[in-house]
């Protein structure tokens, strides 16, 4: 016994004491692991927007890179929530230009949700980048011509229309390789005050916006809109 005490006093810990200490440390780690694993976890479906939010979309917005998500089983192109800059989905590798439908796991009591990827349910390419920019319509034989300018914004997914006294801003839904959804949400329609009360000088309007179902880019560089029966509604050329 005296020898053991001498070992301890002199700072020499016996082997059996070290073993006890190691076992106690392992038990403590195991206990902590059990406690943390017992935290209530749930899974849910989220969608991730194909482009991070930054100053290019909102010049006066807070500096930084922010992801947009929504908690929906089916995608709603008009409703997105900006996440904090610290937002992350563990195990998820984001590729810009795609809508992602994800199944994620999270701890219910966490004040700032940090998700863990369970599975990628859908990866949907967004083709809006191929038609972004400014366009002007050109005449189509046997159709009344009304000069229209449009601008397609990729990050905000909007289509701005200008013609005569009027300006409209239309939300955009899905933009596939050929399929396109316009007028998903109509934000506003404005008329210049000097035009109010005057008869329209030219016939025509923005009717193609509500009727467009398909689009195509021709080899000549034209952007064409079609209805659900593939009737040509508008033909536009780049205006920049």
Could you characterize what this model shows?
The chain has three domains: 2-37, no CATH class; 41-125; 129-238, Lipocalin, CATH 2.40.128.230. The chain contains three helices and 14 strands. It has 240 residues and is α+β, with helices and mostly antiparallel strands. It is elongated and about 100 Å long. Mean pLDDT is 80; it is low at 4-9 and 199-204. It has an eight-stranded antiparallel beta sheet.
Quick overview of this protein structure:
This is DUF4377 domain-containing protein. This protein has 240 residues and is an alpha+beta fold.
Which helices and strands occur, and which strands form pairs?
Layout: H1 2-9, H2 15-37, E1 41-48, E2 68-70, E3 81-82, E4 89-90, E5 98-107, E6 115-125, E7 133-138, E8 149-153, E9 158-163, E10 166-171, E11 186-191, H3 207-211, E12 214-217, E13 223-226, E14 232-238
Parallel strand pairs: 4-6
Antiparallel strand pairs: 1-2, 1-5, 2-3, 5-6, 7-8, 7-14, 8-9, 9-10, 10-11, 12-13, 13-14
Name the CATH architecture of the largest domain.
Answer: Beta Barrel
Alpha carbon gap, first and last residue: 94 Å
Describe the main β-sheet briefly: 8 strands, antiparallel
State the name of the first-level CATH class of the largest domain: Mainly Beta
Organism: Algoriphagus ornithinivorans
Protein name: DUF4377 domain-containing protein
Key structural traits:
240 residues; alpha+beta; Lipocalin; 3 domains; 8-stranded antiparallel sheet; 6-stranded mixed sheet; 3 helices; 14 strands; 15% helix; DUF4377 domain-containing protein
